[in-house]
Amino acid sequence: MKIFKHINIKWERTAMLFMAPLILAPMFMACSNDDELQEQSIIVADKNVSDTPFDKWLNTYIVEPYNLRIDWRWNYNDIRLGYYTVPASYESAIVLAHILKHCCLEAYDEAAGISFTRRNFPKQIVFVGTWEYNNNGTYVLGTAEGGRKIWLAGVNHVKENIAKGASQLNSQYLKTIHHEFTHILNQNTPYQVAFKEMTKTTYVADSWSKDPYNKDYRKRGYISSYAQHSPAEDFAELYSIYVTSSAETWQSYLDEAVITTVDENGIKTNDYTYQNILQKKIDLVRAYMEKSWGIDLDLMREVLSRRLNDVVNGYVDLDDLSM
Question: Any residues with CB less than 8 A from the CB of 106 and at least 6 apart, and which?
Fold first, then answer.
């Protein structure tokens, strides 16, 4: 399963194109006897490509404990075609790797146990320097493939996003990780059929970003515009938004689901139908995470909030490569 995530204030996801590798036939050329072969090859391999201080740090704190590889170098085979992108810078890659370690890997260690993280977290994260821009005004934040790999874009913007605060870091990086990780967990253990039945007749697939679906979605029982795409995206949006939102923010989302009407006499009437639907949906997400994975949503939210504030407040040295 390959998934794209796009954002233009709202989240978007489209089907991934399967790309066949470009096969080049080998070419052989004759040379005359007058040509002289150099004793030393003109092609110089970088034998120390994995010996930077950052690579050693990754091996100690990411590869060995989690069996997870962070590919921060540009690798043509790992970059999706069709976008103008640039490599992640060395300095930015170091910063984002620290954030992922503190706010994702170690957060799941704390909330669900290191065995859970080692067993279930994807085994490869590919860093891309820029966002992957689409021709419709949206851009790609991150994508997941087959339960094992996540692409994370916009790495070179990480420092400016830290300066904008916790909410910005969540929306640009961390929510993406939690959303895609939810898909991975769902692939291993399917979520309840009852969840799919809640609003099964009102999902709109790729029309979620178009009028009228791009507004008032909570008054239709969806936590985000993108959640209207399908039950799988609905589930992942609910989890990722819940654990990256404060209790007050989450309650404000539920309050937006209340439909208030005023009659000709000025008497207000509140319809709680879709607020109740949203509550039932998150209750199903909560039950699934607890029963299938031993994750308490409120504990997860508390851990993530505390650790993210550590980063924003400068309590974590994001440049430290000491062993």
Answer: 307
